[in-house]
Design brief:
By secondary structure, the protein is α/β, with parallel strands linked by helices. The chain is built from 18 helices and seven strands. The protein has a seven-stranded mixed beta sheet, with helices on both faces. The protein starts with 21 loop residues before the first helix and ends with a strand.
């Protein structure tokens, strides 16, 4: 056992060798497709870039060959090998934990570790290549295409966002009931991201939010939120705002594209409603799990909006709305109120309960915050160790050490997650009795889970 594993809970984890698990099909079907897409992306880059030197072309072909070999090894259930060193310190921990695996085969190993291992191994193909390939993002095209392809939803959401900001500025949302209704709506937008059609949500106008129909829409959308701690978070933020505290909020991001837009909308709402004075966005510093946000993805969205370059065929009013939103977020960044960070920890294999041991400085940053919001499925899996917990297990138990104080410091954790894996905790006993088989896997259900380790 590695020293950073000593506090891990004693729970079986999702394994790609378990035929009953979602990991089983993911390893055998999705991973090879991801590798094939990466191979194609490199080929497209080489063929579409006449300015590449012969050295860079050859290096790109070498990366393609490595990816092809990796795909063959994966499909053949070959034994994993230690990740080659590329000068970055995270590899040591990967290889240390590698030694502790009972089964080191691609299709019979812990899902969370192996999936992180795969992306980190692939990254060495680029970092150990020629400089042209060092920062190459093989998923950039697909991430940008997803945003470009979400034109209708993007314009609609930005217009609704402008309406909320206007209502706040004009003090239309002064009563507690209206403020709470807007908060619930904003949480749901960030929760579902691109998983739900915006037509299922209300218009975010004060009139509709206060109407009987608006309440019915919100209540209907809550039916598939199997754990909903929104009320606790609302009370927390309202108390912090009233007390005049620092109101420092961190958001650990998930996907780029439209989901990132929903997160920026949520951040803007938190600022303008007085629930936040400073927001830190945590993203990735390397291509990760296909769609995860890095700095270039954030720049693409904000600058593309502000400069009016993302969508060509939209009318002037819609273009103006997007430009206004882009300039708004750009202004928040320039003022220092909104900050992007990409710590190495987020692209390690570590469950988050190991934070106090492996990254005490980052743990202290999160503990100093008034609230940490974790977006998406991977962050949820890391928070809960990707454990095969009974669904009625409490969220705090699944959090392990992160549910407790360390040297007097604790983290307030809020997860906004649509379920796309096997792990899911915090349900009431018997709550999922009548749910369909595999209900945790396909994004139909969601959780809004909160735990206060400061108290």
């Amino acid at each position: 056992m590695a020293n950073f594993q000593v506090t891990d809970p004693s729970i079986a984890v999702s394994n790609s060798g378990d035929s009953e698990s979602f990991a089983y099909s993911t390893a055998r079907e999705r991973w090879p497709k991801i590798l094939s897409s990466a191979i194609d992306e490199i080929a497209s880059t080489i063929s579409g870039n006449d300015g590449l030197s012969k050295e860079d072309v050859d290096a790109g072909k070498t990366i393609q060959a490595k990816l092809t070999s990796l795909k063959t090894s994966m499909l053949g259930n070959a034994v994993l090998e230690p990740i080659p060193r590329d000068g970055r310190p995270d590899i040591e921990a990967y290889n240390e934990e590698f030694k502790t695996l009972q089964n080191r085969k691609w299709l019979a190993a812990p899902w969370l570790y192996t999936e992180c291992y795969m992306y980190r191994l692939i990254h060495t193909y680029f970092t150990l290549s020629t400089p042209f390939w060092h920062s190459f993002d093989m998923f950039a095209t697909s991430k940008r295409s997803s945003l470009v392809g979400s034109k209708k939803g993007t314009i609609e959401l930005v217009k609704r966002f402008r309406g909320v900001l206007q209502a706040i500025a004009e003090k239309q949302a002064v009563d507690e009931e209206t403020q709470k209704a807007i908060f619930e709506e904003m949480v749901q937008i960030s929760l579902w991201g691109n998983a739900t059609d915006l037509s299922l949500l209300t218009s975010l106008s004060v009139e509709e939010l206060n109407s009987r129909q608006g309440k019915a829409v919100r209540d209907s959308n809550k039916k598939n939120i199997v754990v909903d701690d929104t009320e606790q978070v609302w009370r927390l933020l309202s108390r912090l705002r009233s007390s005049g505290s620092s109101r420092d909020i961190h958001i650990v991001l998930d996907n780029a594209g439209f989901e990132l837009l929903t997160d920026l909308v949520f951040a803007g709402y938190l600022f303008e409603s007085g629930y936040a004075k400073k927001i830190v966005l945590h993203g990735k510093r390397m291509p990760w799990f296909v769609s995860d946000v890095n700095l270039e993805d954030l720049k693409f969205l904000i600058e593309g909006f502000a400069d009016g370059t993302i969508y060509d065929d939209i009318d002037s009013a819609d273009k103006e709305a997007l430009q206004e939103a882009g300039k708004y977020w750009r202004g928040l960044i320039h003022s220092g109120k909104l900050e992007f960070r990409a710590e190495l920890f987020w692209t390690t294999q570590h469950p988050f309960g190991r934070l106090p041991i492996v990254e005490p400085a980052l743990f202290e940053d999160l503990a100093d915050a008034d609230l940490v919001v974790y977006k998406g499925d991977l962050n949820y899996r890391k928070l809960t160790y990707d454990g095969m917990w009974p669904h009625s297990t409490s969220f705090s138990e699944a959090l392990g050490p992160l549910a407790k104080k360390h040297d007097g410091q604790g983290v307030r954790s809020l997860v906004l997650r649509t379920a796309k894996a096997d792990v899911c905790v915090g349900l009431k006993p018997g709550q999922d009795t009548n749910f369909e088989e595999g209900w945790t896997r396909y994004g139909k259900y969601a959780v809004v889970s909160y735990w206060d380790a400061k108290s």
